[in-house]
Task: inverse folding
């Protein structure tokens, strides 16, 4: 929406003669779209599961100052390993961005590029370091491994940070949601759901690829996996 309006000649001409009023109209229109999308929710809080918000967190807070972002991170070698394991299960299908014909190291390089599936959200996460402290305080980072090992503790802390009433989850009886469309991404990033929390089996990562990941993303390991960084 922002890109479309910013390219519209008629709207741009309004900025020349009535910037404050036109800009205010744009802001209220975008706020109306954002809030109108969830007008029938009827809940105290809404979860919008879209990693693109991290790229646009400052714009989001302009439109909805009460918004907060939850960022789930996972050890990067295992993130790559999960994608590669799915590639081997669906090896006859190509990726939407055509990575199937790369070798494993080449595919890892491409996945971590700044405009690709792993590299893009990583770039947004690294950019958080440049944000004002007031914006950074709107972000809550939880490690996937901690969530798997201590779900009750992690979720209790998260609810408290969100300012919501305590709510105890049952890790062995989770409510299933609507199934999402995995075919759009050629079945490479499946969003399977399970009725209970099950920590995945660790993926075996080639040492050369693991070392390259840890070397290239030292900042990530120092912030979220300091024991790995110290070992490295």
Result:
């Amino acid at each position: 929406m922002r890109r479309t309006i910013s390219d519209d000649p008629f709207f741009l001409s309004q900025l020349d003669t009535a910037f404050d009023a036109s800009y205010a109209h744009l802001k209220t229109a975008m706020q109306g779209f954002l809030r109108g999308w969830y007008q029938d929710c009827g809940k105290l809080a809404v979860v919008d599961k879209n990693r693109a918000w991290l790229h646009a967190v400052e714009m989001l807070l302009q439109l909805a100052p009460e918004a907060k972002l939850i960022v789930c991170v996972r050890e990067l070698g295992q993130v790559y390993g999960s994608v590669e394991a799915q590639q081997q299960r669906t090896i006859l299908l190509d990726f939407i961005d055509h990575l199937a014909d790369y070798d494993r190291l080449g595919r890892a390089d491409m996945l971590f590029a700044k405009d690709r599936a792993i590299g893009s959200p990583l770039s947004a996460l690294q950019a958080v370091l440049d944000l004002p402290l007031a914006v950074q305080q709107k972000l809550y980072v939880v490690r996937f491994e901690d969530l798997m090992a201590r779900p009750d503790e992690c979720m209790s802390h998260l609810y408290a940070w969100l300012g919501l009433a305590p709510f105890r989850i049952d890790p062995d009886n989770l409510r299933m949601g609507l199934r999402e469309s995995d075919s759009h991404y050629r079945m490479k990033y499946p969003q399977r759901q399970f009725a209970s929390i099950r920590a995945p089996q660790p993926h075996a990562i080639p040492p050369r690829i693991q070392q390259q990941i840890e070397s290239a993303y030292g900042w990530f390991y120092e912030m979220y996996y300091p024991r790995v960084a110290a070992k490295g």
In short: The CA atoms of residues 24 and 66 lie 19 Å apart. Strands lie at 69-73, 139-143. Residues 19-37 form the longest helix (19 residues). The mean pLDDT is 94.
